[in-house]
């Protein structure tokens, strides 16, 4: 083709591909061809700057256009994309700085989803007096299209043949878009309530899940903590200990700091020195550098029994209650539900001051009171030895 050609008309053919290299072409008519599939990913020219002023791509079965198809079209004033199958504007409009007419009539456009495209069209309407024809498209008057309808309401002077615009409501009824402002106001109210409902339902579901999860976590909190600390420990070592039914300690002694003198001066001498028993005492036997909770779990697991020196200080101590519950979990999940807990009441406590778990074990006679007198002490320590060796 001659490079100086100004008008090129290939309308009413069966072209499925088209490419030109005429730098001075002013009018390109490709009406009524079959270029839809080709133009969805390709351009009809690779020139970065062309002289085209009018382009007719109507009746080409176009469903989508490549994003950069109009790059370099700085002189284009009229583009006809009517009678195609476009559903949205997905191509770049930023190079069409001279555009005065964009014909998108007789397509399948339900709205313009890109805010950038809407902003560009609005800007062109102020600089080039651009007019757009969206007639005979079935627009959607729905919440997801509200932004586009608000754009139409603000840019009515940009649109031509507005009396032919129709809009499909949520109930699928078709209405004339003669008073878009009223429709926008109605949709704003409906969409706001709809959004509020979604938020409320979502919040309710999330809250219910959190409450349920929190309830389950609280219900099984000691089991979960026990399993966590047991998993962290060297499982194979403990497995061999359990399988051979041997323990490193005869008893784990759980006590508050206020009863340290009693443990050091009474419990350890009577049970270790006189009875040749091995006790796990935190201030002496815990591994340095290990977390205290891990030390507690390890000590209980390696001990035949757990002896709790119960005082008010014991009940007020976080770690004493932790040791009590870890011993309960140990008896349930590692000792076939065989109780390993035994209470020594070192001071008088009212039943109402005791936790339910302690009261339950007290009712099963799994306790002894410290007499704090010479004759009673002999019986007390004999009972302690009997308890520890009977396991």
From TrEMBL:
<keyword id="KW-0433">Leucine-rich repeat</keyword>
<dbReference type="GO" id="GO:0038023">
    <property type="term" value="F:signaling receptor activity"/>
</dbReference>
<dbReference type="InterPro" id="IPR032675">
    <property type="entry name" value="LRR_dom_sf"/>
</dbReference>
<keyword id="KW-0732">Signal</keyword>
<keyword id="KW-0472">Membrane</keyword>
<feature type="domain" description="TIR">
    <location>
        <begin position="247"/>
        <end position="388"/>
    </location>
</feature>
<dbReference type="InterPro" id="IPR000157">
    <property type="entry name" value="TIR_dom"/>
</dbReference>
<dbReference type="GO" id="GO:0005886">
    <property type="term" value="C:plasma membrane"/>
</dbReference>
<keyword id="KW-0812">Transmembrane</keyword>
<dbReference type="Pfam" id="PF01582">
    <property type="entry name" value="TIR"/>
</dbReference>
<dbReference type="InterPro" id="IPR003591">
    <property type="entry name" value="Leu-rich_rpt_typical-subtyp"/>
</dbReference>
<dbReference type="GO" id="GO:0045087">
    <property type="term" value="P:innate immune response"/>
</dbReference>
<comment type="similarity">
    <text>Belongs to the Toll-like receptor family.</text>
</comment>
<keyword id="KW-0675">Receptor</keyword>
<dbReference type="InterPro" id="IPR035897">
    <property type="entry name" value="Toll_tir_struct_dom_sf"/>
</dbReference>
<dbReference type="GO" id="GO:0007165">
    <property type="term" value="P:signal transduction"/>
</dbReference>
<keyword id="KW-0677">Repeat</keyword>
<protein>
    <recommendedName>
        <fullName>TIR domain-containing protein</fullName>
    </recommendedName>
</protein>
<keyword id="KW-0391">Immunity</keyword>
<dbReference type="InterPro" id="IPR001611">
    <property type="entry name" value="Leu-rich_rpt"/>
</dbReference>
<feature type="transmembrane region" description="Helical">
    <location>
        <begin position="194"/>
        <end position="218"/>
    </location>
</feature>
<keyword id="KW-0325">Glycoprotein</keyword>
<keyword id="KW-1133">Transmembrane helix</keyword>
<keyword id="KW-0399">Innate immunity</keyword>
């Amino acid at each position: 083709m001659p490079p100086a050609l100004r008008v090129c008309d290939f309308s009413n053919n069966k072209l499925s591909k088209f490419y030109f290299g005429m730098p001075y072409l002013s009018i390109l008519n490709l009406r009524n061809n079959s270029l839809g599939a080709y133009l969805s990913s390709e351009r009809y020219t690779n020139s970065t700057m062309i002289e085209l002023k009018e382009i007719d791509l109507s009746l080409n079965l176009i469903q989508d256009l490549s994003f950069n198809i109009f790059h370099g079209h700085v002189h284009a004033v009229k583009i006809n994309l009517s009678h195609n199958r476009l559903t949205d504007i997905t191509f770049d409009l930023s190079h069409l700085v001279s555009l005065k007419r964009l014909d998108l009539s007789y397509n399948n456009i339900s709205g313009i989803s890109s805010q950038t495209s809407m902003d560009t069209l609005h800007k062109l309407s102020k600089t080039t007096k651009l007019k757009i024809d969206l007639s005979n498209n079935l627009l959607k008057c729905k919440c997801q299209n509200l932004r586009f309808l608000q754009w139409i309401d603000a840019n009515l002077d940009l649109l031509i043949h507005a009396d032919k615009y129709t809009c499909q409501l949520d109930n699928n009824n078709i209405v004339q878009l003669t008073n878009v402002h009223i429709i926008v106001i109605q949709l704003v109210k409906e969409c706001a309530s709809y959004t509020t409902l979604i938020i409320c339902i979502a919040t309710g579901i999330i809250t219910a899940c959190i409450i349920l999860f929190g309830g389950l976590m609280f219900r099984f909190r000691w089991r979960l903590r026990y399993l966590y600390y047991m998993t962290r420990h060297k499982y194979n070592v403990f497995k061999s200990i359990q399988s051979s039914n041997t323990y490193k300690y005869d008893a784990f002694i759980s006590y508050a700091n206020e009863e340290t003198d009693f443990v050091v001066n009474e419990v350890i001498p009577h049970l270790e020195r006189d009875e040749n028993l091995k006790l796990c005492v935190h201030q002496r036997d815990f591994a340095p550098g290990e977390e205290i909770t891990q030390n507690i779990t390890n000590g209980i697991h390696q001990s035949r029994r757990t002896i709790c020196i119960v005082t008010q200080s014991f009940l007020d101590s976080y770690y004493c209650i932790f040791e009590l519950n870890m011993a309960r979990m140990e008896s349930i999940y590692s000792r076939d539900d065989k109780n390993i807990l035994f209470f020594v009441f070192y001071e008088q406590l009212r039943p109402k001051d005791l936790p339910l778990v302690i009261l339950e074990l007290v009712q099963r006679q799994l306790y002894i009171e410290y007499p704090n007198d010479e004759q009673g002490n002999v019986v007390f320590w004999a009972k302690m030895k009997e308890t520890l060796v009977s396991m």
